[in-house]
Amino acid sequence: MTGTPLPDTAFAARLDALGPFEPAPRLAVAVSGGADSLALALLAHTWAAARDGTVHAVTVDHGLRPEAADEAATAGARLGRHGIPHTILRRTAPLPRGGVQAAARQHRHALLEAFCHQEGILHLLLAHHRGDQAETFLGRLARGSGAFGLAAMAAVSEGAHARWLRPLLDVSGDSLRATLRARGEGWAEDPTNRDTAHQRVRLRNALRPLADEGLRPADIAATAGRLGTARAALEADTAGVLAAAATPRPGGALTLLPGPVTGAADEVALRALGRMLAHGGGTAHPPRADRLERLLAALRAGRAAGRTAGGCRFMAAPGGVLRLVREAGRIRECPAVGPGALVTWDGRFRVRVGAAGRLPPGPWHLAPLGGAGRDAFPDLPAAARAALPALAGGDGACVAPVLRYDGLRDYPEDRPPLLAEPAPRTPLTAAPFGAAPLSFGDDAPCHGERERPAHMER
Question: Whole domain around residue 319: which residue ranges?
Fold first, then answer.
């Protein structure tokens, strides 16, 4: 099947819709060496040059295939012919025996974020296109996802250090390959794209007979976009409920005013509870739907105090409010640390260990504070205090942290033995997910809403 090259003007309209961008914008493009990402890099290069900006291509080599290194080098040579600088990042962390693809995505995400942070680049472009959007929709449909999951991928994700942009979600892969041909450029074919051991390949193959029945990738992607509109509305309502109901407290606890949650529609109330539990429990995802439903029923009946979910406990507090605290007994993360270490602990804190001369006898590891620390945190509830990070020494000494809220990097050598900064893995609120573009002609300008989700690059 052949496609029509994507004009520079049509691409520019799509990327401009995902702004704002700074004067002379600097972009990073995740490039695998395949047609989709190479076409994106060339289109982005033209866009940036017209605005006195620059593009830097980045390839992550996981070392999973022997030929990957040569493919990365070839991609760099192709990009170099167009004046695009290219960096290859290599994975150093070991991958688990199971779930290799998911772990590789996480490592790739971390490496790309770190590169953008190091280079001061605010925008990372990903080459997901219309077919990828349709595959994502079908994969989540197979897993029984609701409206949130079936909204699939969106055009803007807010990362820790960069905005992850997907300007090609309404462009076909055929159009991107035609774009490369029109520029006289080739590409590599990843053999895993033909390996039916991967669900995404089986789903891609399933799209062909579906199209014969009138269900084209464009139609599936359009449905994902409409569900994205519904998701945006739900997330905006959820953010409003959280703003009215939840107040973060020192040490990582939350104060919950039940009324705004119990008075909200079920879907919104469940989302708000799930967000609070993920925030308070240091997890990336909320508890299962059935747990949240039972918790909401208890909250509406006035019986939530004492309930546990997601590694957190609800506790009664004066004035008819509830406190949400992390259960110290559920914390299993007790890593060994050395002087000067900077680590993330329990998905809730960033912790800095002091200089060796100020530490108790080693070896040292981080553990929940437990019953210690009453003098250091007299105003914290005992349950919240118990779930703070502490430094445990080889002589059994337990050192309570000094809580900071202004960063941990620039402190003198005489800093305390342990500094801790709240850094929850899941923020209490986030920018809402927006609708995907619905202009599915390859040369039509994008006029959709901005969007913000969280998916990996291709």
Answer: 235-328
CA distance 128 to 457: 7
Distance CA 112, CA 194 (A): 26
Residue with the two structure tokens 């994700």: 157
What span, in angstroms and rounded, lies between the C-alpha atoms of 340 and 356?
Answer: 8
**Cis amide prior to 363 (ω within 30 degrees):** yes
Q: Tell me the mean pLDDT in the region 10-37.
A: 94
Residue 278 and residue 371 in one domain:
no
**Residue 311 backbone zone (phi > 0: left; psi -120 to 50: alpha; other: beta):** left
In this prediction the pTM is: 0.72
Cα–Cα–Cα angle for 132, 136, 139, nearest 5°?
A: 135
Q: Is 237 helix (H, G, I), strand (E, B) or coil?
A: helix
Q: At what angle do helices 8-16 and 35-49 cross, to 10 degrees?
A: 80
Domain limit, last residue, from 328, 355, 386: 328
What is the sign of the dihedral through the CA atoms of 117, 283, 137 and 192?
positive
- Do 268 and 295 share a structural domain? yes
For residues 300 and 3, which has the higher predicted lDDT (pLDDT)?
A: 300
C-beta of residue 221 within 8 angstroms of C-beta of residue 210:
no
For residue 285, give both structure tokens.
């995802």
How wide is the angle at C-alpha 336 spanned by C-alphas 332 and 337, nearest 5°?
A: 125
* Contact (CB, 8 A) for 47 and 21: no
Phi, psi angles (nearest 5°) of residue 62:
-80, -10
